[in-house]
Amino acid sequence: MQIAGNETLGPSTIVPGARAALWLLLGINLFNYIDRQILSAVLPKLALDATIFEPADPNLQFKLGLLTTAFMVSYMLLSPLFGYLGDRYSRWRLVGVGVILWSLATGGSGLAVSFMMLLAMRSLVGIGEAAYGPVAPSMLSDMYPVRDRGKILARFYIAIPVGSALGFVIGGAVAATSLGWRGAFLVAVVPGIVLGVICLFMREVPRPDAGSTSPHHEGYTAVFFRIWKVKSFRCNTIAMTASTFILGGVAAFAPQYIFEREARFQVSGESLLNVEQLLASDQSRVVPEAIVDKLRPLTAEKIYPVDEFKKLLRQTLNPAEYAQYSERLFDMLTAPDSITLATINLTFGVIVVLSGLFATLLGGMLGDALRERYRGAYFLVAGWGCIVAFPFFLGMLFLPFPYAWLCMFVAVFGLFFNTGPANTILANVVPSSVRATAFAINILIIHALGDAISPPIIGLIADYSNLQTAFIITSFFILIAGLVWRFGARYLEADTAAVTTPPLPLQ
């Protein structure tokens, strides 16, 4: 089936069946992000499961973090491989197999009987998503003309804020029932398998003629360097990496930062009773009686801010006890009228889903609307979003609440505003024949140098100072992203035009 258009750039009209494919891929992407955040939502319950962790495990927090890292490492490292395969073989089959694999691994997460089994299942989830992540936007780019690509990819990526929020809601709600944290994983299995099976019956998406540049005749290294030589691709990937770095850090530490800044603490008879009644799944006490006994003399009406309360606990407990139990005590000993971590997580989730949803949609539509009027419009839209977000991010760190919530909303809006335009740039500046590979290379770079490393870096800075200082220092990545996107605008028109004429074959 031939689709009239600009050769490797894409079709001139919407390919038949494109809308059904968009809805299917959007549904898959939604479950992709639901699955990712279910783990985050059930971590408090998971940490109490004595079949996975010993209540007195000194490495508990490290192991919990490792579950997220395992997914991210397998996802970003194997994305280039599946992107390479996606440029050569049936993309719907690759997506279908990937979705079924990650759905089964999600079910396996709920059935895990040990930490190592759970770690292996989370790694398999990453492998399954790697088979889907770089291929899906490549297919959408081959089904829609360039003029619509920004808004289409924006619709596809609204799954990021919406799916993430639903993951927190669904995971938390199911984990609170008799099904527990295991049930939260199990409820996501059947819908994922159904979506994966539907993919296996979808008609293959036509690929625009790639001429002599077919990747079947090139090695991976040659394809990589051909893509990396495109200046628009380079600038866009660098800016996306900087943006992903700060988004990953904010997602990891923003609730904790707000909690430490705004929460107040009190040691009372009632709160100590709650500590005593905190039990693991085998009914053993999470906080030993000896620790509670050390805290009883502190019972008083006094309310402590976080810094004073930290100092008090350090004076009361020895270093090993503080390292082991302080996080639990901070959760359980909040003052009656204090903001709680649950309230912060809910408010933060609402801000992310609302600002992320509208920013993703508006950014894609604005990029499409301005592409005929301004050279490099997609770059400009992405860049100005981050530049506007930068002062509001700083305002969030210095203004009192509730004004800080408003600043956070605008900052998150600006950070998500680039989603549609940035991914449209990726689709427009490389030929269809290597587009899945290009998305895969981008996924590897932005995660390996972005959100995979930003949480430990921010945490390290905070260990030597505090989270506010860590956020101030790393906030300049927002400005860097905006300026690099603004700089890249000069290359977009030429790089997009170059895609319409296949280059000479490599020697």
- SSE string, helices as H and strands as E: HHHHHHHHHHHEHHEHHHHHHHHHH
- DSSP E strands, number: 2
Number of helices: 23
What is the first-to-last residue Cα distance? 31 Å
CATH architecture of the largest domain: Up-down Bundle
Classified in CATH, the superfamily of the largest domain is MFS general substrate transporter like domains
Report helical residue fraction.
over 70%
Largest sheet: number of strands, sense, barrel closure: 2 strands, antiparallel
The computed structural class is mainly alpha
Show unreliable segments.
1-8, 502-507
Shape: globular
CATH class of the largest domain equals: Mainly Alpha
Strand order of the largest sheet: 1-2
Could you report the average pLDDT, rounded to the nearest whole number? 84
| Overall radius of gyration | 24 Å
Strand content: under 5%
CATH topology type of the largest domain: Growth Hormone, Chain: A
Query: What is the total number of structural domains?
Result: 3
